[in-house]
Amino acid sequence: MGWIIFVAFLQTATIICIAPFIQGIIKKTKARMQNRIGSSVLQPYYDLIKFMKKDAVLSLHSSWLSVATPYIVFVSIVTAGLFIPTYITNNGLSFMGDIILVVYLFGIARFFTAFSALDAGGSFGGMGSSREIALSAIAEPALLLAVFAVLLSSGTTKLPDLIASLTSDGWSWFSPSYGLAFFAMLIVLIAETGRIPVDNPDTHLELTMVHEGMLLEYSGRYLGLMMWAAQMKQLLLLSLFINLFFPWGIAASGNVSQIVLSFLLYVAKLVALGMLLAFIETMYAKIRLFKVPKLLGSSMILSLMAILLRVFE
Amino acid sequence: MFSFDRFRHFLTVKTLINPLDPTFPSVAVQLPAANWYEREVKDLLGLRPQGHPDPRPLVLHGDWPEDLHPLRKDFPLDQHAPRVQSREAFMRYDSEDVTEIPVGPIHAGIIEPGHFRFGAVGDTILHLDARLFFTHRGLEKASEGMPVQKALFLAERICGVCALSHSIAFAQAIERAGNVTIPPRADYLRTLFLELERLYNHIGDVGNICAGFGFAVGISQGARLKEELQQLNERITGHRYLRGVVSLGGMRADVTEQEREDIYQTLQYVKKEFKELVDLLLTHDIAINRMATTGILRLEHANDLEVVGVAARASGRSVDIRRDQPYAAYDRVHFHVPVYKEGDVLARIRVRIDEVFESFSIIKQLLQQLLDGDIRTNIPNLTPYRSAMGWCESPRGETVHWVMIGPNQTVYRYRVRSATYSNWPAVPLAVKGNIVPDFPLINKSFELCYACCDR
Fold it and tell me: Which residue, among B453, B357, B350, has the nearest Cα to B37 in the 3D structure?
């Protein structure tokens, strides 16, 4: 029992602490690819510290919802972190739930974010939340389908079991369906982290915003919490992606040296994947809003084909 | 004032107005382009157009007293206007399905103030009200009584990015009033700097349009090349935005042999890099997809509203005052005026791209032809109450300055018609039927500046 609590603590602390670092890596990579020097990879930490020190200004029209939402969002994302393996297979609460719970925890965070954006009655918040909900109606099933396409190989919805079976299978895991699921998941990853070509995290054009549009009414520590939560969600999705497709090296036992090695490997994989995302973001431009469902639709079709292939094997 | 490009002549229609009943029959229904002008005359001079379709104030906002007309001579420059109950009105929608989205006047980016009110069904734009003139500076009023030499600096400060076009248009008006012919070398230099101004604007705009769809490579390359050109401007003239290079009767800044070589070398480099950027941009599927068929300005609309500049040429309206009413040395160089028919964002970016290459060619010809000689002559004593006009094709389109000389070499009356002023009314027509998230892209493709209206 003590071990589980220790692992859960370690996992949560890791997610909370390295999420801004990965954001920094992505930003730095993008800057370098655009011939800019860019800010330090530690800049997201400085930003968060700055936001946490600041007082928040709230609209007179907003209700308790605007105050509660940042905490709800932050907590639900941290909780989701306890179900996704990062660098230790047996993480904190995985005996309590599986990937479906993770998707719903993300759903709670999204629901409250969209609701609080409507709360103050600003026009951009309303636009952002209506877009976010419309897109998530497709993005959520696409995420589930992509994950299922991989999970089918081990016949479980519990991620630790899947990873155990993947790592023990050697090279026999590879199949065409796995490749299809990889691309399906990559598309979902881009959509869920709010990156180009779906959303533009760096834009100052309020009219084009999706996720950022919902945060416009927030300031100070509330904004800090929301941004931190978004960075953690990004980290969790990256971790999920890594452990679905490249789980090798993850620590299966409680050996300290193995955990340290696994942690270093995990960070290296995160950095590599973050750079890949930055690369995609630099190469592509934002697609027209109404084309996003088509992109997510193609992700779903890829997943479906992966599932079919798996079933007929 | 009408311009007959084919005969290279202007025609001015004048009418006498009874001072006791300052009204005149409106022509805004027959000539939609006159809409803004008549509203402005009503606001600033109190001349009331009879039968005008849109009674709302234009330049002065609704909270300005209705009977105070700042351009009248009995209105002192330092008079303070009390605020009154606002008469501002926007389109009203009866349907519950229409969402009104107010945007601005303060925006998230560092841009000038403008209030946009969309009536949208879902994300599709039904109607757009654009409220501008938030920072009208009254420069025309301020210039009255100012010595013409000093007013040149005022004209230069109308707009940051077309500073040179404004100063040259003003200088031409004064020179025409004084019957001055400027030395040929000054003509060439003016043309050279005008094209340098066009280059840094167009290349910067191509990069800026990329920001409309988040194409990072385009944004950063555009910004970098614009910077190269602005640094060139600074090396040659000492000012990145080409301020202070013109004087009445010629030029203040000259180009040495060494600087000529510098211009040549820098432009060679920029041309090569810009070509790479253009190839990348025009073969990028998403970029083309975002730009094509977005924000179409139809030729009828462009003709009705007398749209000028890049926006006109992208909609199939072949106007370019460099060719139609040549000034400076434009009649001594060869260039082609690109015209596209589609009228969408893609056509506007293509016009800019083509014009960039035309500018490279014009500058090359100028550097070869550049004559030796004086760069300035003196302005004689100007006859009071004589009026004259100067014009210039700024990067945004034709800019026209009209000046009436006052006693002792001062400005008596001054009116600036920038390209932006002609083109703003076309933007709401171009965005209709597009989706709200495409508006920033469409707006960027017109690249209208607010300061040119808020003169």
Answer: B453
CB A23 within 8 A of CB A277: no
Of the candidates A118, A26, A68, A1, the residue with the CA atom closest to the CA atom of residue A225 = A68
Could you tell me which chain B residue has the CA closest to the CA of A196?
A: B214
What is the ipTM for the molecules in this complex?
0.80
Q: What is the dihedral of CA A89, A91, A94, A98, to 10 degrees?
A: -60
pLDDT tens-digit readout, A202-231: 777 777 788 888 888 888 899 999 999 999
Burial class (CB in 10 A: 0-12, 13-18, 19+), B380: exposed
Q: How many angstroms separate the most distant Cα atoms in chain A?
A: 60
Q: Which residues pair with B131 in a beta bridge?
A: B115
The reported pLDDT for the residue numbered B450 is 86
- Chain B residue numbers with beta carbons less than 8 Å from the beta carbon of A37 are none
- pLDDT tens, position by position, B128-159: 888 888 888 888 888 888 998 899 999 999 98
pLDDT at A174 over 90: no
Contact yes or no for B216 and A286 at CB 8 A: no
pLDDT in tens, A102-125: 889 999 999 999 888 888 777 788
Helix (H) or strand (E) holding A233: helix A220-245
Q: What is the dihedral sign for C-alpha A108, A114, A119, A120?
A: positive
From the list A36, A282, A288, the residue facing B289 with the nearest CB is A288
Contact present, B405 and B177 (Cβ < 8 Å)? yes
Residues of B with Cβ-Cβ distance to A204 under 8 angstroms: 107-109
DSSP H or E stretch at residue A162? helix A159-168
Is the bond into B326 cis (omega within 30 degrees of 0)? no
Q: Measure the CA–CA gap between B156 and B244, rounded to whole angstroms.
A: 8
Band of the pLDDT at B82, cuts 50, 70, 90? confident
Q: How does pLDDT run across A85-101, given as a tens digit for each residue?
A: 888 776 656 667 788 88
Per residue in B24-80, pLDDT (tens digit) is: 888 888 888 888 888 888 888 888 888 888 888 888 888 888 888 888 888 888 888
Gap between the Cα atoms of A1 and A153, Å rounded? 30
Please check whether residue A44 is in contact with residue A27, taking contact to mean a CB–CB distance below 8 angstroms. yes
pLDDT of residue A21: 94
B120 pLDDT tier (thresholds 50, 70, 90): confident
Which residues in chain A (63-122) have CB-CB distances under 8 A to chain B? Answer: none
| Whole-number Å distance between alpha carbons of A53 and B239 | 42
Whole-angstrom distance, CA of residue B133 vs CA of residue B138: 11
> pTM of the entire structure?
0.86
Strand partners for B99: B120
B452 — pLDDT class (breaks 50, 70, 90)? confident
Distance, CA of A184 to CA of A166 (rounded, Å):
19
If we measure between CA atoms, which residue out of A142, A116, A108 comes closest to residue A213?
A: A116
Given a contact cutoff of 8 angstroms between Cβ atoms, the answer to whether B132 and B60 are in contact is no
What count of other Cβ atoms lies within 10 Å of the Cβ of residue B90? 14
Give the span between the Cα atoms of B452 and B132, in whole angstroms: 11
Interface of B with A (CB under 8 A): 99-103, 107-109, 123, 210-221, 224, 284, 286-287, 289-290, 435-440
Compare CB distances from B437 to A34, A202, A207 and report the shortest one's residue.
Answer: A207
Catalogue all structural domains in chain B, each as residue range(s) with its CATH number.
1-85 (no CATH), 90-131 (no CATH), 139-446 (1.10.645.10)
**pLDDT for position B407:** 87
Residues of B in contact with A282 (CB under 8 A): 216-217
Count up the domains in chain A and report the number: 1
Diameter of chain B measured on Cα atoms: 70
Rounded distance, CA B415 to CA B389, Å?
Answer: 10
Q: Which residue has the tokens 């928040």?
A: A56
Domain extent at residue A301: 2-312
